[in-house]
Write a structure and sequence with these properties.
About 20% of the residues lie in helices and about 20% in strands. The protein is built from 3 helices and 4 strands. The strands form 2 sheets. The protein has a two-stranded antiparallel ribbon. Helix 1 packs antiparallel against helix 2. This is RIBOSOMAL PROTEIN L17A. Belongs to the universal ribosomal protein uL22 family. One of its GO terms (molecular function) is structural constituent of ribosome.
């Protein structure tokens, strides 16, 4: 996806015009029969929109495209929530590691026409002739 198109897409997601299709760790995005534009994680998008211009230093912006994006689960962070009657429950957060790679489009190199190369003869066949 080209960089300009990706930026527009992320801005549309923040405005809730489009959704990012995603799956939870094991299962779907929720219990609904239809796909709706409500299942989007908009918390990390300002982070991406802020850091996209810094990654284009010294590169041709028009030739950039997102070549790789990967999200992995990070280690859960623990906090405590205090409940009634003196109970304490875990209050876990579910962070993630996001890997984004931008690359320039490479121009294709034309293949040279095949030339008729002289077939090399082995020493044995040269000796017999």
């Amino acid at each position: 996806m080209p960089l300009g198109k990706a930026k527009r897409y992320l801005e549309d997601v923040m405005a809730h015009k489009q959704a990012i299709p995603f799956r939870r760790f094991c299962g779907g995005v929720g219990r609904t029969a239809q796909a709706k534009n409500r299942h989007s994680n908009v918390f990390c998008l300002p982070f991406y929109l802020h850091y996209l211009p810094f990654q284009v230093k010294g590169l041709d912006v028009d030739a950039l495209y997102i070549s790789h994006i990967q999200v992995n689960q990070a280690q859960k962070q623990r906090r405590r929530t205090y409940r009634a009657h003196g109970r304490i429950n875990p209050y876990m957060s579910s962070p993630c590691h996001i890997e984004l790679t931008l690359s320039e489009k490479e121009e294709p190199v034309k293949k040279e026409p095949e030339t008729q190369l002289a077939t090399s003869k082995s020493k044995k066949s040269q000796a017999s002739s």
